[in-house]
Design brief:
single chain; alpha/beta; 6-stranded parallel β-sheet; 8 helices; 10 strands; 15% strand; globular; PGP-like_dom2; HAD-like_sf; HAD family phosphatase; HAD_sf
Length: 223
């Protein structure tokens, strides 16, 4: 089998989604959401679970809360988090190429940010799989924004904190909501097919299977 062609990138800053982009977590998130719905006697399928990917959990739950017949969004979210963090939850793992790419970018002095729909404690724990939260100058989580992806608020906040114009940055995403958020913020976007097929990510500038084929150009002539 022929190895995939490398993709050469260059920007003044790199902004990463977390779940599914740097760390593979969809398998455990799907297990938690599935358990939440089935515990309450509600049917759940792939189409429903796809509506949660890349979004803040509370906002995704708000679309379905009326079906639960009583519990609030916050109560349901807390219950789902309990399943997510339980001892029988399947473990997360680094997306192929993530740790190497981050180490390379950090070594080059490229400003780095995480923009995640998850909570800060969740993000801090997951980032240990790819080198630790200390690699990033900025971490924007669900607690830091009024509206989650596909709203661009998180990416715009990260660009401001990094002191970089969105047109000079690249976002890395794995879900349609994240690709839309990056585009709305004015960022170029690399999408990974770790959680969605390429057809669902067609609005990204580059679509790749994971982070192993990406390299950072030294200057414009290397691109």
């Amino acid at each position: 089998m022929t190895a995939p062609e490398p993709h050469s990138l260059q920007a003044k800053a790199a902004l990463f989604d977390l779940d599914g982009t740097l760390v593979a977590t969809e398998h455990r998130s799907r297990a938690a959401w599935t358990r939440l719905f089935t515990t309450h006697g509600l049917p759940v399928d792939d189409a429903l679970l796809a509506t949660f990917v890349g979004r803040r959990g509370q906002e995704a739950l708000a679309d379905h809360v009326d079906r639960f017949g009583g519990p609030t969004v916050d109560e349901l979210f807390e219950e789902a988090c309990g399943y997510l963090m339980g001892p029988d939850s399947p473990p997360p793992y680094a997306v192929p190429g993530a740790a190497d790419l981050l180490a390379d970018l950090r070594g080059r002095g490229v400003p780095l940010a995480v923009v995640t729909s998850g909570l800060r404690a969740h993000a801090t724990e997951l980032l240990e799989h790819v080198g630790g939260a200390g690699l990033f100058q900025v971490i924007v989580t669900a607690e830091d924004v009024q509206a989650g992806k596909p709203d661009p608020q998180g990416y715009l906040a990260a660009c401001r904190a990094l002191g970089v114009h969105p047109a000079d940055g690249i976002a890395f995403e794995d879900a349609p909501a994240g690709v839309s958020a990056a585009a709305a913020a004015g960022l170029r976007c690399v999408a990974l097919t770790t959680t969605h097929p390429a057809a669902d990510l067609a609005h990204a500038d580059v679509v790749v299977p994971d982070l192993t084929t990406l390299r950072w150009a030294r200057d414009a002539e290397d691109r």
